[in-house]
Design brief:
alpha+beta; 2 helices; single chain; elongated; 4-stranded antiparallel beta sheet; 4 strands
Length: 148
């Protein structure tokens, strides 16, 4: 009796290891590097856009033709994914669809999508504007108090 149980377990283990591999045409390699049953894109995360995301300059060729279309400044979230086929790391706005791509190991991507991206203003310029606006508001408040 123990012999048959042992033989059954060995047979089950032996047959369990037999799995049919995915067939590809002769002489070709599979184009997907993603694990079987998984998608091409791997989620990295969803992030809040910074003030710098709002400064992204959209190339004329990529600019939306419809004036009602969202712009990068209107994005609520930045979705970051990794393309498992190419190795590209893509950051895309959820409303505008504006994307920037980074992959230092691959051929160059279109300049309008490559990092470093073109910005309307740099962080230092935005900080200077905020400081200037705060000084103007402070001066106005002092002048108003002096008139009272």
């Amino acid at each position: 009796m123990k012999f048959w149980i042992a033989a059954g377990v060995i047979a089950a283990l032996g047959l369990g290891g037999c799995q049919k591999k995915a067939e590809t045409p002769a002489g070709t390699a599979s184009t997907s590097r993603a694990p079987h049953g998984k998608g091409r894109y791997i989620g990295v995360g969803i992030y809040a856009p910074s003030q710098m995301w709002e400064q992204i300059v959209v190339a004329d060729a990529d600019a939306p033709k419809d004036p009602a279309a969202a712009l990068p400044a209107e994005d609520d979230e930045i979705i970051v994914v990794l393309d498992s086929n190419t190795g590209d790391l893509r950051q895309c706005g959820n409303l505008s669809g504006a994307c920037i791509v980074m992959n230092p190991w691959a051929k160059p991507v279109a300049i309008s999508h490559a990092a470093p991206v073109l910005l309307g203003k740099h962080a230092a310029q935005l900080d200077e504007e905020a400081e200037a606006a705060a000084k103007v508001a402070e001066t106005k408040a002092r002048n108003w108090l002096r008139t009272k």
